[in-house]
Amino acid sequence: MNNDLMVKELRRDEGVRYYPYPDTKGFETVGVGHNMDTSPLPADWTFPLTDAQVDTLLASDISAVVCDLNVKLPWWVHMDEVRQRVLVNMCFNLGIGTLLTFHNTLTEMCTGDYTGAAAGMATSRWAGEVGQRATRLVSAMSDGVMPNE
């Protein structure tokens, strides 16, 4: 997976914040979608965060998502690189627990039915909640090309 593109895409989709804010579910969040309730910051960090701190959090969060995918969906490494980024992006946004509720969509991804997987993504409640992010990811899952690359 192209980590530089993954970072760029998550920065675009999540936004970058140097001060904490409540996300749409009320969780204290900072940086690039970093949930401070589940993963507190080091005690000596203060606000505003630096770019280096934001980058450190994001790298750690991407690694955690990749680890979750490796454990729960080991087949994901056999998808092409664009579709891997789609799955990482979804997992980053939803968390592995919620992502795993996409039973049919994940089965379609696993079997290479990317058109079916994209259709499942497009009709989900998640797609309605995240708007343009979902539109981009659905398109990328369907045709294997990330829009705006």
Could you explain how this protein is built, in words?
It is a single chain. This protein has 149 residues and is mostly helical. It has one domain: Lysozyme (Orthogonal Bundle), CATH 1.10.530. Helix content is 59%, strand content 8%. The protein contains 8 helices and 3 strands; from the N terminus they run H-E-E-E-H-H-H-H-H-H-H. The protein has a 3-stranded antiparallel sheet with strand order 1-2-3. Strand 1 and strand 2 form a beta hairpin. The longest helix has 22 residues, at 51-72. The two termini are 14 Å apart.
What is the CA-atom radius of gyration, in angstroms? Answer: 15 Å
The tally of structural domains comes to 1
* Helix proportion: 55-70%
> Main β-sheet: number of strands, strand sense, barrel status?
3 strands, antiparallel
Spatial ordering of strands, largest sheet: 1-2-3
**CATH fold type:** Lysozyme
Shape, please? Answer: globular
Task: Classify the secondary structure makeup into a structural class.
Answer: mainly alpha
Mean pLDDT score, rounded? 96
Q: What oligomeric assembly is this protein in?
A: single chain
Task: Give me the CATH architecture, please.
Answer: Orthogonal Bundle
